[in-house]
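sry for the spam today, last one i promise. struct tokens for design, 304 residues
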């Protein structure tokens, strides 16, 4: 009995530091080291829900579980489709294992329709206008950014790469006629400009996969935000999470994502939608379509 207790104690000592030590903590998730491999980390989803850069905050029971399950469902589909991911595997209801990355501090937004902040920047464009060609926007994550040499007066601006440098625009102001409020000569990926193209391409491929998955659930993925990182082998990978906080999905004319929370919906209603989206993304699978190649016979060439 004593021996058994000692071995339980030793086991707990081995795992508790892994779940105790925190590498990073954000509004909705915690990153912890993975003791068996320093190139990996454990990502935990919390029960918190926030909007407007943390100004609006709440929590509900189940949020962490729904967020983790949705992210794992989404990443499993993306992995099956060959998108390079930081995600490795789901560990349990609240945790997944992923690669430690050097995160690239841009929020990459892809849009099929005009919603949200896009409408403020383009007031002449009607809500739900469809973009036949996907729109990709970069927003510079300035909050924890150091070493750019200049103070950033407004956070998380719209970023445009031009010959003059990295141009920053106010995201909540019409873009037409707006001059950049700052032009950065130094900015993330300055020395690897080709990565902007690579990121935009990967973000669009990811969007198309998830757009189709939502179509099969009779819903429209209208926009999303993704983030990228460089893993320990120096490879560009889709990182962070993709859960119900990161996209807008419309079903039967209603948002079924975080928009309901932003718009002041009751927390019970929000929880119900998150539960529904967890189940819906659980059905995301790679369809087994067959490609049939039909070779014509030589005699087909003979003119009759
Ligand atoms: O959400 P908001 O209207 O402020 O901004 P948006 O640029 O219209 O957001 C486009 C998409 O990115 C939406 O699906 C948002 O949920 C998502 N997003 C996000 O996940 N995190 C942010 N910090 C900003 C936007």
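last one done:
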């Amino acid at each position: 009995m004593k021996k058994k207790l000692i071995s339980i104690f030793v086991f707990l000592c081995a795992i508790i530091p892994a779940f105790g030590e925190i590498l990073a903590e954000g509004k909705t998730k915690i990153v912890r080291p993975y003791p068996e491999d320093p190139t990996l980390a454990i990502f935990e989803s919390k029960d918190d829900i926030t909007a407007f850069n943390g100004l609006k905050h709440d929590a509900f029971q189940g949020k962490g579980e729904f967020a983790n399950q949705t992210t794992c469902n989404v990443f499993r589909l993306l992995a099956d489709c060959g998108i390079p991911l930081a995600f490795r595997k789901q560990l349990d209801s609240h945790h997944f294992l992923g690669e430690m990355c050097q995160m690239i501090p841009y929020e990459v937004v892809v849009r099929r329709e005009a919603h949200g902040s896009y409408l403020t920047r383009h007031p002449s464009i009607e809500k739900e206008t469809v973009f036949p060609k996907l729109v990709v926007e970069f927003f510079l994550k300035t909050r924890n950014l150091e070493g750019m040499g200049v103070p950033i007066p407004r956070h998380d601006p719209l970023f445009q790469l031009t010959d003059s440098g990295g141009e920053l625009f106010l995201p909540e102001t019409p873009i037409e006629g707006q001059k950049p409020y700052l032009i950065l000569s130094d900015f993330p990926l300055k020395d690897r400009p080709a990565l902007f193209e690579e990121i935009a391409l990967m973000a669009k491929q990811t969007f198309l996969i998830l757009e189709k998955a939502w179509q099969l659930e009779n819903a429209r993925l209208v926009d999303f935000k993704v983030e990228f990182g460089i893993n320990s082998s120096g490879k560009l990978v889709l990182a962070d999470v993709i859960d119900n906080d990161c996209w807008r999905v419309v079903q039967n004319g209603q948002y079924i994502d975080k928009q309901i929370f932003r718009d002041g919906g009751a927390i019970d209603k929000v929880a119900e939608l998150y539960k529904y989206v967890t189940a819906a993304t659980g059905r995301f699978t790679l369809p087994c379509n067959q490609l049939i190649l039909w070779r014509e016979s030589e005699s087909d060439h003979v003119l009759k």
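The pocket of cytidine-5'-diphosphate is lined by residues 107, 109, 115-118, 223-225, 245-248, 258 (CB under 6 Å). ok im logging off now
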